[in-house]
Design brief:
single chain, 233 residues, 10 helices, disordered C terminus, globular, mainly alpha
Length: 233
Amino acid sequence: MNLLSGIVIRETIRRHVTHVGFMTYVAFLMIVAIGVSKFGPPAAGWPTLIGLLAIITGSGVIGPEFSSGTLQLILVKPINRSTYLLSRVAGVLCVVWLASLAPFLCEVIGRALIGEIPWYAMGAKLLNTAVLAILTVSLLTFFGSFSRAYLNAALYVVLLAGLNIVPPMLGMAGRDRFLWLRRALDVIEQNLYPSAISGFDWKWLLLVLSNAAVALVLACFVFRNREVPYGAD
């Protein structure tokens, strides 16, 4: 059994990179990177925008095909659901990584024209941004495996907001009463939404990638057992 399908990956990439919205967004990233190369610290601004792109593209890993019912046509071909899902994830990640290379190269060129290139800082930021995108897309895929199309993005944002708002509220309610709950929520936030770092840290990379792997395994399990709707789900 093949783990990935080249056809699904290529089609996913093609549908994204030929979309006018994607091309416009990448152009905007390049403009931001050029500005950063002249006036800002290394790799500032555009990695956050890449994270936003990961949310936008990742929210559609399980999207139109499932909610419209056309997934039945895909699944009658010799490809199982897990292969289809992982191939969609791989295609989306390729799109995000390609988009991240555009501002990176623009900033490199811009800094080369005016002085020295901070390769370490920029390389670390590019790698960490790419790895964070894996976790973001994996979480959105997991949420999408049991929710309606594009509701996964709302779940992702609401959970992030809740993990940032609830602990301070618990702290105001009582210093020690909810200490265990606050610590538990902090651990969840650090695993699901780890803060970006500026250098290379193999422990951080392992944490992010392992959490992404768990999310994808759960997504495949749920998706394999989810009923395919006839019409909108």
